[in-house]
Every structure is written in structure tokens, then in C-alpha cells.
Amino acid sequence: MSASGVTQSAAAPAVDKPTRFGALKYAPFRRFWLGSIAAVGAFNLNQLAQGVLVFDLTGSALDLGKLGLATAAPTIAVTLFGGVLADRIDRRKLLMGAQIVLAALLTLLATLVVTDVIEVWHVYVIAFFSGLATGIDWPTRNAMFPSLLEDKSQMMSAVALSSILWQGSRIIVPTTGGFIIAAFGPSFTFFIAAAAFMIMFITLTTLKLPVTPKIPGRNPLHEFAEGFRFIARTRIFAILIPLTFSNMFFGMIYIQLMPAYVDLFGGDAREIGYIFTAVGIGAVAGTFVVGKFQQVAWLGWMILGGISISAGLIFVLALSPYYWLSVGIAATVGFFNSMYLISSMTVLQIRVPDGLRGRVMGIYTITFSLIALGGFFGGVIADFTSVRVAIATGAVILALIVVIVATTQPQIRSLDGRSLVED
């Protein structure tokens, strides 16, 4: 059955030839993707502005870590059960509700800044409640977009396009946001982000998306446990998901600590924007490159290579003595990390059963929260040593984990992209 409810002709091809932008030919996916541009931009703008605001208020790398903890802890807690909700009720309504809450919270934060009554604990509290809403948004978003495709052959395209949303936003938003913050202060960026979430809400009201079948009479805790059991007994999931957790927690420490890192070079919001933009440019380039290798026999080695090179470059970034050298290194980090993330997420999206998709991808979605949580880990190290040592420590730990996986898990090394759709 097609998205419009009309059965496809028997003469129509069962599987389309995979193309880089093939997923956009499906109208529901295309509209959802276009509408998501605003929400993804809002997430990135809010992350940038909150970090700048906290560092302006306190000048402390540890406080940046606390901001990460305030955001990540509720997001992780809710994300797990957000996946259960995404498998039980209408995903469109869940996503609409999350947009309303996020818009309201950012409007409140902007108002506190404008009226000059803002204190750092206000930011933490609003970050906490934003994290609760994000815990519903992310697993629902990740569970929703695969259902808008009519066949799995375009899954790599859909994953790549979803990555382009995030990485493309990292190209445009940080530089633009840096200039806005420098010119008008963080409050204006919070108002813009709130408006962007409302644009996504309005877009969702105009879409007719597949309704998630209701699962009556089942204990949500049992359903939650079922998602964990699937991951535990499915080797590829049991390896790739923890590996991605490690990548985000240890490898992405520099993201949360970026205001403090840029301050080492005497930079401000503009310089933060430039370096995040460099990461985004590299990631988009990696997205396009990985699309050319979606069905190679050595997909497993590409996954391991992407994350290992990224870890090495992050270590070099930690030691970089010059700001513009750091910008170039950040771009290459984005390139190789994007290759890893897209390849590994495609494997997971293709292999997960539809009935478990919300729960399993909800667990996977914790990865994005681990960036902020890893920032708290890095902030504690930076408070005792330095920002450079914190970033380098995370990179070394990640590299060691990758070596262990590469040497002990032949299931990853032998992943063959040619057989993914058929399996």
C-alpha cells in the first residue's frame, strides 16, 4: 500500500534503484524533510546560544558541562520511554506536542534575558525541561521518517538526507547565529528558535502521515524491555549502538566545551560559529561521499575507519596551537565522523523490525544526548586540568574502544553493504 492508500500496480518495480536523493520522490517524506529544516535549525541555534549565554554568565568550562548534564539527563530518561510511546500512539501528534513545549520554553528563556533577570540556574532549569521535550521529539522523529518510504532500497538516501538536515544546519546556523549573538545578544536567537519550532508544528498539521497502530493491553515497561532484549540478542545492534554511544560521549566532548575552547584563542561567538560551521561543511561532504559507497563489500571496514580517523583528528584538534588550523581540523573531523554515523545508522534502520522501530531507535537516539553528557565528563576534567586535556582524553578513550571492537568483533569487520537490503 502506498502512502496515499492506493495499491501499487503489480507491474511496478518492487524495489527502486538506490539514488542519493531518491527518498525525496516520496511526497510524505519530502514534506516532512522540508518541514524539519526549521526544527533542526532551532535545535542547533539553541545549543549555540545556551552555551554562549552560560559561558558569558560564569566563564567556566565546568558550568558548560553542567549545562550538558541538565540537558542530557532528562533527555536520556525520557528518550527510552519516548520510543515506547512512538510505537503505541500517533507519532505526528507526539511530535506536534514536543514542538509546542520547546517553543514555549525558549520564549520564556528569551524573555528572562531581555528583562535582564537571567541567572545561570534559570538556564539549567529551562534546559532540563527542554530535555524532557527533546526526549519525545528525537525518537519519534527517527521512528517516523522510515515509515514514509515505500521500500527499503532508499533507506541510505533517507538516512543521508536526514543527516544533511543536521549537518547542513551546522553550516548555516552557527555562523549566522554567531553574528546574531554578537550583534543582538542571545535573546534574539532564542526567539528565532522558538518561531522555528512553531514552523515545524504548522508543517505537521498539514501532513497526513501513517498512523501508528495501537498496541492495546500491553505493559509499557514490558515493551521497553523488549526493545533492549532485541538489541542484546542481535549482535550487530549490540555492537554498533554502544560503539556510537562511545563516539558521542568521548569523541564529541569538544562540542559542549566549544565556548571554552575558542576562548583559548581569544575568540567569541563569531569564532564559535565558524568552527561549528567547519564541522558542518565536513559532515555534509562526508554525507555525499558515503552515498557513493552504500553497497560496497567493505562497509564494515569503512565504518571502523571513519570512527578511528575521527578519534585521531579530535586528539590533534585538542593540541592545535592556532585557531584557523583548528577550523580545518574540525572540518575533517566532521567528514569522517559523518561517514561513520551514516553508514552505521543505515545498517540499524534496515535491520530493525518495524514493530520495534520506535523502541530500538529511541534507545539509539540517546546517542545525541550523550554529546551533552560527555560534555559534563569533559567539563569535570577541564576544571582539574585544562580544556585541551579534557578533549584529548576523550579522543584517546574512544580510540581504545574502537581498537577493541575492531580486533574482537568480526561481525562488524565483515559487514557487506551489498546484502543489506536483501537480508
How would you characterize the overall build of this protein?
The chain contains 16 helices and no strands. With 423 residues, it is mainly α. The chain has a single domain (27-211, 231-419), classed as Growth Hormone, Chain: A. The longest helix is centred in the first third of the chain and has 32 residues, at 27-58. 57% of the residues are buried. Mean pLDDT is 82; it is low at 1-15.
Overall CATH architecture: Up-down Bundle
* Tally of individual helices: 16
Question: Helix content range of the residues, please?
Answer: over 70%
Distance between the termini: 22 Å
- In CATH, the homologous superfamily goes by the name MFS general substrate transporter like domains
Quote the average pLDDT: 82
**What percentage of the residues does DSSP assign to strands (E)?**
under 5%
In the predicted model, the low-confidence regions spanning at least 5 consecutive residues are: 1-15
Sum up the overall morphology in one term: globular
Coarse structural class = mainly alpha
Which oligomeric state applies? single chain
Quantity of strands, as a count:
0
- Number of discrete domains: 1
Broad CATH class:
Mainly Alpha
Order of helices and strands: HHHHHHHHHHHHHHHH
Main sheet overview: none
The radius of gyration computed from the alpha-carbon positions, rounded to a whole number of angstroms, is 21 Å
CATH topology: Growth Hormone, Chain: A
